[in-house]
Write a structure and sequence with these properties.
100 residues, mainly alpha, 0% strand
């Protein structure tokens, strides 16, 4: 979006949140980069008259998406730790079976 206004930025953040929620991390990264570029262009185009209330609303939405991302990151980390523990337990069990 070369000329994104606030509604378009909100739509981009919503799409980013949907990608995060769906676990589509590559798509989320792409949407984050697009949003960042659009936001920068929006601020450059509207400064110094950028509506502060609009920026606050975008910031709230960004923070919600960041919380989603953090939650997804924690869930992935916990799944990896669980898989690691299961792998260790499986190896210990196999080792105990083969020990005379």
């Amino acid at each position: 979006m070369s000329d994104a206004g606030q509604p378009a930025l909100e739509a981009q953040l919503s799409a980013l949140g949907s990608a995060v929620e769906a676990g589509e991390l590559a798509e989320a990264a792409e949407r984050m980069a697009e949003y960042d570029a659009s936001l920068r262009r929006y601020i450059e185009r509207t400064a110094p008259d950028t509506p502060v209330d609009g920026l606050r609303a975008l910031l709230r939405m960004q923070n919600e998406v960041l919380l989603q991302m953090r939650g997804k990151q924690q869930a992935i980390g916990e799944a990896l730790r669980q898989a690691y523990r299961q792998g260790n337990a499986s190896r210990a069990y196999t080792s105990a079976e083969t020990t005379p």
